[in-house]
Amino acid sequence: MKAGTKFLIGAAVIVAAVSWLIVAGVRQTGVYYLTPTELAQKAAADSSYYGLGVRVGGAKVVPGSVTRDVASQEIDFRISDGHQIYAVNYHGIVPDTFTGADDIEVIVDGSLGHDGVIRATEVLAKCGSRYEAAAKDARRQA
Amino acid sequence: MTFLGQFALWTAFLVGIWGAVISFSGRWRGRPELARSVRRSVFVVFGALVVASICLWKGLLSHDFNIEYVWAYTSRNLPTYFVISAFWAGQKGSLLFWAVVLSTFATVAQLLTARRHAHLLPYVAGVTQAVTVFFVSVMIFAANPFGRLDFTPLDGRGLNPQLQNVGMVIHPPMLYLGYISITIPFAFAVAALLSRRMDSGWVVAIRKWTLVSWLFLSIGITLGMWWAYVELGWGGYWAWDPVENASFLPWLTMTAFLHSVMIQEKRGMLKRWNLGLVVGSFLLSIFGTFITRSGVIASVHSFTQSNVGYFFLGFLVLAGAFAYTLLYTRWPSLEPESQLESMLSREAAFLFNNLVLVGIAFSVLWGTLFPIISELVRGTKITVGPPFFNKVNIPLGLLLLALTGIGPLIAWRRASRANLKRQFTVPLAAGAGTALVLLIAGMRDIYPVMALALGGFVLGTVSQEFWRGVRARRRMYGENVAMAFAHLIGRNRRRYGGYLVHTAIVIYFVAFTGMAFKTEREATLKPGQSIQLASPFGHTYTLTHVGVSQYKALNRFVTAATVRVSRDGKNLGLMTSEKRQHFTVQNGEEVASFEPSTEVAIRSDLREDLYIVFAGAVDGTEEAVYRFTINPLVWWVWYGGVLLAIGGLITMWPGEPPGSGPRRSQAGYAVTLEGAGAGAS
Predict the structure, then answer these.
(1) Mean pLDDT along residues B48-52
(2) Interface residue of A6, A8, A18, A66 to substitute, partner B, most B CBs within 10 Å
(3) How far is CA B493 from CA B216, B652, B664, B666, B667, in A?
(4) What's the CA gap between B70 and B308, in Å, rounded?
(5) Do the chains contact at B387 and A31, CB–CB below 8 Å?
(6) Fewer CB atoms inside 10 Å of the end CB: C or N, chain A?
(7) How far is A115 from chain B (nearest CA, A)?
(8) Cα dihedral sign for B171, B237, B442, B569?
(9) Closest Cα to residue B389, out of B238, B558, B206, B604?
(10) DSSP-derived secondary structure letter, B228
């Protein structure tokens, strides 16, 4: 067999291995990225969505809904995309950007329980319109 | 000042268009005065952008808050060095930074390129001008750093506290230098294709510039890891965040190129592949900027997002279509000059190394874009996170590490049995020995054992190379070991610099392996209470909460929690982690700006880091919530980074090595292995 042919076989093996790793990786570790409304629809149509690992995004923290027990590191809050509201329970340290102020966009990793509460394993937060609000304040002062 | 800045931008824009149009029209051929004009347009654009940059810096340093950019990213109480670095803290300033650095590189390329490649320079100028014009036009039409407010605020908004870190002062410019300098090899590649002169000369020019960008990108990525580690406070340095991935992608394709280009220099093979890699690296660097700027994918870097990203998307598509069409039309003139002769050859090892590197790049790109891909194809967004990237990349990374050890050992063209035996015995024994020691010591995790054993194999390879080189010099010139070592590196910079880089890569792998053994614990402690934490190296840490203090510093309110640390009963002193609330002064009042930020406390030694995050005090009492993490071998990442930079610098150090004479044509890796070449040829 020519070296070129042998190399092509080796290359095919590597390409196949990479493809397999990617496909298997996605299948084993991929999670649905859903808005609260989409999650509600899916869970209503298919009960296997309860307890399934999901990432819930496109939602904001409902103002005033955050209760923290600092000592036990339990945080409860509600998220909403304007149509659907879910209660979220999280144990652990939240990022600095999760402040409890208005207009915080959050991404919650976790699973939906049958009680309708999302048990979060990770909470990511981002300030939404706050900087623009600050800009307006500055303008008002001037 | 802003008027002068605007004027400078427009000058750069118009002169840049002139240069690009004349260059691509080809009118300058046979008309040296036009060729000179194209070349001079590069210098004019450079001058104009330097003027624009000075204007922006002047605005920043004079606290001219009427300029929107100055207001948005600085404040009066910001330390001066952060005011200076605010130049690239925001989008608009970064665009100017990109443009001015690109035109600097373009100028250097025009001035320093050897005369034998001079026929390419007008084309190179055209490409760099086109890319510069793109950046300048984004500034002029969408994100002008010199935009003014219709009033003058008393103070600025301040800099995001996460960017108030020394690492952040140098990490973005380094990364940008890497991203930006890829434009130069890309320009040479396009120039070679446009000029239809497909001799091997251009590849040398491309290789040197690729090394420059590769080095900047490596340093930028490592500094980014450092910033993430000390500033973001989640206890690690790499999270497979989209923006991190975006910087990793061109690094992978450039690494592939730096290896495969040796095959082209030595054997005249892989010309198409190499050009494809250079073009791909450039596109990936623009893609990286697009990901960073557009926020299409949620990321820790989301403070930089805006709609300017879509300009980049358009540019990306145009540049890609242009470059690959050009490559396609020149396809027949890029025939390989020789064929692969054996699977047991360095060519084959490098080909597999390229496949694996590109495979890693593809999987990282796929995972990064998967939310978008899955939404387009299946209608539901599916995301993948660190588990995906680890699952895919650990096996591929180990394969790559194995090839790192094999490549330098195996002969060009066709390796003989004698060659294999002579070259592989010691490194293989080193690898097997490492595995044996680890297994006897009780390590049973398959990936860490493999990673460390392969690391031993690669170090065996590198040591054998150095040992044989030093021994040969001692015999031939009677030098002592230190002199022989120094001369060996000095006379074969490409080859031995490359080995230092390989050693650095092993150090990185060892450090990554350490993170598999990280341990973490959260605790809520009253003053005087303590917890114990066992480290992977068998130490026991006792952590006692001392108390919480609150005070005001330069531009922030600080709540600091202090822990007394002892290891195996021996007192190691106090460690303090802080929560900071930054403020700006408005009408004499201190107004909170940005979210609170955490300052972690880190105690490092060679083996492990103790990493303390203060998560907050319980309702105004001194009871504090902590997260304690023990991260093994983190410092090895930074050591690896330093060694990588040194190795890279040696590899690209300009000028002919002293006393090398005219016969140095096959320098670097291409040098036949001392003695071993006999068995191979």
Answers:
(1) 97
(2) A18
(3) 18, 8, 12, 12, 8
(4) 19
(5) no
(6) N
(7) 24
(8) positive
(9) B238
(10) I
Instruction: Give ipTM to 2 decimals.
Output: 0.85
> Distances from the Cα of B3 to the Cαs of B7, B61, B140, B416, in angstroms?
6, 17, 13, 70
Tokens linked to B447: 């990936």
Compute the nearest-CA separation of B85 from chain A (Å). 20
Sole residue written with tokens 């004479």: B661
How far apart CA B84 and CA B62 sit, in angstroms, is: 11
Select from A53, A126, A122, A21 the least CA-distant residue to B367: A21
Strands A53-61 and A31-34: parallel
Compute the nearest-CA separation of A128 from chain B (Å): 10
* Chain A contact set for B548 (CB, 8 A): none
Nearest residue of chain B to residue A25 (CA atoms) = B388
Residues A90-122 pLDDT 10s: 998 887 778 766 667 888 999 999 999 999 998
B233 contacts A30? CB cut-off 8 A: no
With contacts defined as CB-CB under 8 Å, which chain A residues touch B406?
Answer: none
Q: Determine what percent of chain A is predicted with pLDDT higher than 90.
A: 41
Nearest-neighbour CA in chain A from B19: distance (Å): 40
**Which chain B residues are closer than 8 Å to A93 by Cβ?**
522, 613, 615, 625, 627
Buried-state track B567-601, b at ≥16 Cβ within 10 A, e below 16: beeeeeeebebbbbbbbbebeeebeebbbbbbbbb
The neighbouring-strand residues paired with B610 are B603, B630
CA atoms of B525 and B614, how far apart (whole Å): 11
Show the tokens assigned to B256: 């592939």
Cα(B135)–Cα(B89) distance, integer angstroms: 17
Tokens 């300030």 found at: A127
Considering only CB atoms, which chain A residues are within 8 Å of B91?
Answer: none
CB contact under 8 A, A7 and B351: yes
Cβ contacts of B381 on chain A, cutoff 8 Å:
32-34
Q: Which residues contact B39 (CB under 8 A, 6 or more apart)?
A: B110, B121, B122, B125
Which pLDDT band holds residue B669 (cuts at 50, 70, 90)? very low
Chain A residue closest in CA terms to B619: A70
Determine the distance from the C-alpha atom of residue A138 to the mean position of all C-alpha atoms in its chain, rounded to a whole number: 33
Distance from CA of B230 to the nearest CA of A (A): 14
Neighbours of A55 (CB within 10 A): 22
Confidence category of residue B674, pLDDT binned at 50, 70, 90: very low
Q: Distances in Å between the alpha carbon of A55 and those of A33, A122, B68, B475?
A: 5, 9, 37, 65
How many C-alpha atoms does B283 have within 13 Å on its Cβ side?
Answer: 20
How far is Cα B561 from Cα B654, in angstroms, rounded to an integer? 51
Average pLDDT over every residue of B202-229:
90
Q: How far is B43 from chain A (nearest CA, A)?
A: 39
Q: Which of A9, A15, A67, A93 best probes binding to B when mutated, by most B CB atoms within 10 angstroms? A: A93
User: Which amino acid, residue B333?
Assistant: S
- Among candidates B304, B180, B185, which has minimal Cα distance to B241? B304
Q: How many helices and strands (H and E) does chain B possess?
A: 20, 11
How far is it, in rounded angstroms, from Cα B573 to Cα B644? 33
B327 Cβ contact partners less than 8 Å away, ≥ 6 residues apart: B193, B272, B275, B276, B279
Of the candidates A6, A21, A126, the beta carbon closest to that of B343 is on A6
Q: Do A93 and B385 touch (CB under 8 A)?
A: no
CB burial readout B257-296, b (16+ within 10 A) else e: bbbbbbbbbbbebbbebbbbbbbbbbbbbbbbbbbbbbbb
Which residue in this structure is represented by tokens 């300052």?
A: B599
